Amino acid sequence: MVIRHPDPMAMLLQAMPIVAMVVYGTIYLRQFLDGYPPPLANLAILIALGVMSFYALWRLSPFTLYRFRHSPAHVAIEKQRLIGRNPLLEHDLSRVQRISIERYPFNRGYRYVVCMHLADGRRIVEGMPDAPRPEPIYDFAVRVARFYGVAEGPGGPPEE
């Protein structure tokens, strides 16, 4: 089973410097074409926005691809980047007993993450999707639980 999970925050962080570069570039070009030579600081800002755009496209991944398999039971997590290599993370899921959505403190509030509970008491959370509310990741957790035939966490999405 393959699940493609979007990351809206990464998409936003990739789009912001590009939009700022287009807007600021338009202003810079207008000043230049009107015969008023813009200060070099304006050019430095444009170059900095270009570097920020390249770095965001190179390091952030707007989509994560989860490849779940039955035999052997494991998941391959691939962060799909627009530029550069796609990092791959794998977890052995042969001893998963339960899948739940856990809440953890983040800044001044909480975030929710899909958590896979193993038979020996350990939990797998690295690479699993997280969100500021449990609803966006609840469908992901239910699909994975049904695929492996394990119990879902406490029935339904957790309350805030």
Secondary structure: elements and pairs:
Elements: E1 2-6, H1 8-33, H2 40-59, E2 63-69, E3 74-80, E4 88-92, E5 96-106, E6 109-118, E7 123-124, E8 130-131, H3 135-148, E9 151-152
Parallel strand pairs: 5-9
Antiparallel strand pairs: 1-2, 2-3, 3-4, 5-6, 6-7, 6-8
Walk me through this protein's architecture.
The chain is 38% helix and 32% strand. The protein is α+β, with helices and mostly antiparallel strands and 160 residues long. Strands 5, 6, 7, 8 and 9 form a five-stranded mixed beta sheet that branches.
State the gist of this model.
This protein has 160 residues and is an alpha+beta fold. The protein is built from three helices and nine strands.
The backbone outline, from C-alpha atoms, is elongated
**Count of alpha and pi helical runs:** 3
> What percentage of the residues does DSSP assign to strands (E)?
25-35%
Q: What is the CA–CA distance across the termini?
A: 30 Å
Major β-sheet profile: 5 strands, mixed
Oligomer: single chain
H-E string? EHHEEEEEEEHE
Radius of gyration: 21 Å
Poorly predicted tracts of residues:
none
Mean pLDDT: 86
Defining traits:
9 strands; 160 residues; five-stranded mixed β-sheet; four-stranded antiparallel β-sheet; alpha+beta
